[in-house]
Known about the structure:
By secondary structure, the chain is α+β, with helices and mostly antiparallel strands. It has helices at about 10-25, 55-65, 65-80, 100-110, 115-125, 135-145, 150-160, 160-175, 195-210; strands spanning about 1-5, 35-40, 50-55, 95, 180-185, 190.
Amino acid sequence: MQVEVWSDVVCPWCYIGKRKLETALSRFPHADQVEVVWRSFQLDPTIPEGHTEPTLPALAAKYGSTVEQMAGQMKRVEDIAAGEGLDYHLADGVSGNTLRAHELIHLAAERGLGGAMKERLLHAHFEEQRSVFDVDSLVALAVEVGVDEAEARAALADRRFLPAVREDIDTARALGATGVPFFVVDRTYGAAGAQPAETLLQLLERAWSDSHPLVTVPAAEGCDDGSCAV
């Protein structure tokens, strides 16, 4: 069974949603047969590559609120994140274009390290205030999870994974995703937002039931009355 997750590495709800998915999988008896694939999505693709800006005032301006009001909203998200064991520092965050970060996840996925790369980028951005935007910072993070340094630098230079990132984004739109995280199981069932772990578990169970229907075999001889003596 395949679970695809569209998300961005600078989306606070995406990291929370990742933890909720992990909780759901920990309760799912067939978790060892579930493949989680991390798909690309950009919260703000209009930010020019190479440009970064403090998140707090930028979001306040975007949504027409004061810096103080936005800081209060961020604090509420930080409290929710803390409930998932995450130590956010949103008011100190920096925003930028995440295309190269997503390209790096695609490279890592080819090496069987997609999940580790996704986690490292989220942790770096939200809990360490490390950059996930410039090439040198991204290469350093890639090396930490086991990606070859020269290979990471070359891939980010020639942009070989940019078409795959754009294809992910186009697919999300085709599937009706308007926000992230966006969970899709076997391209059949979907759930948007940082859903409770219980909801995601129900999604997994339903998809598993549909793909593994119960097969009833004929009753054994001597069991015609619906019961068998032991």
